[in-house]
Amino acid sequence: MSEPRYHINLFWSQEDGCWIADVPDLKPCSAHGDTPSEALANVRDAIDGWLAVARERAWPIPEPRYRPAIYAA
User: Fold this and answer.
1) Residue 38: domain span
2) Is the pLDDT of residue 71 over 80?
3) Would residue 46 count as lying in a domain?
4) 20, β-bridge pairs
């Protein structure tokens, strides 16, 4: 069985001084890093951990549903 592919929001946080990666479908699931690549690697680990805990506790695993709105100027 393959893992669901969840959308990841990646953004720079001036307040925190680092890159933030957030997974809207998995609350709360986020990570940070000094570079975009580091934040993405860290959030992929966080997703794996989130899913492992959900399976251990027999919690429902949400289907990927979040899709960002794309605005054209």
Assistant:
1) 11-56
2) no
3) yes
4) 11, 32
Q: Is residue 51 part of a domain?
A: yes
| Number of domains the chain is built from | 1
What does the block give as tokens for 73? 């100027």
Q: Is residue 1 over pLDDT 50?
A: no
Let me know if residue 2 belongs to a domain. no
Rounded CA separation 21/59 (Å): 23
Task: Render pLDDT for 13-69 as a digit per residue (tens, 0 to 9).
Answer: 999 999 999 999 999 999 999 999 999 999 999 999 999 999 999 999 999 998 777
Tokens of 71: 């605005």
Burial of 25 (0-12, 13-18, 19+ CB in 10 A): middle
Cβ pair 43, 35 in contact under 8 A: no
